[in-house]
Amino acid sequence: MWGGLWYSFGYFQRANRPKEVELRYSDGASDSFTLDDEMAVQEFVLPEARTTSTIRIKVKGIYSGNTWLDTAISEVQVFDAAPEDFAVARSVRASSVAAADADGSYEPGNVSDGIKDTMWCEGDRDGDGTGEWLEFQFAGATRVGSLSLLNGIGSSLPFWMKGNRVSAATLTFSDGSTEAITVRNTMLSQDISFSPRTTSSVRLTITGVVKGKEFNDLCISEARFSE
To answer: What is the pTM (predicted TM-score) of this model?
Structure first.
């Protein structure tokens, strides 16, 4: 759950945030959880797996905002017990990271949170993103053959046009092999296929950039590998 208004850190502070929530299932059973008052993704692990056709989230308590009386929840994801369709990254590292500002942080982990409004942005003030990299570490040997990428600032078309985007990159795998890929200049999510292989990590090094109209910073909103 992404509690609060995540449009920016300023907006997060202004609106109410959920503190206590109750999850009620289609059979009438329920579980309750407490959220921390921070702009961070918070995960609830159910005491036991449940079979249900619905989940109702009821806000039972709040953290008060400093401006508005409205309570906000930005995103909710529900996961079943089946294996993921993508390779879960144990960690994501980057060559550099832009400093956090009023809109939040730009940490590399943002590319695997499932939200297009959060992103990794490189932190080289003078560079345009060429030579920067993201490195995905998996829990062990993992079969991959496709990269799902949301290129640039994914929050809106005007912001997407302002920032730099990837046009080409090199994938480097744990055995030292590499593969060059081409990235389309589109705001839509794109799947990029490459020769399948088993690896414990993938480093995506940016080799080509499309310049934005205003910011000389390169950002990637989402990036996930699958077989």
So the answer is: 0.73
Residue 104 corresponds to which tokens in the numbers above? 């939040």
pLDDT digits (tens, 9 = 90+) for 87-120: 888 899 999 999 988 777 899 999 988 888 889 9
- Name the CATH superfamily housing domain 89-226: Galactose-binding domain-like (2.60.120.260)
Q: Say how far apart CA 39 and CA 9 lie, in whole Å.
A: 7
User: What is the residue extent of each domain of the chain?
Assistant: 2-75, 89-226
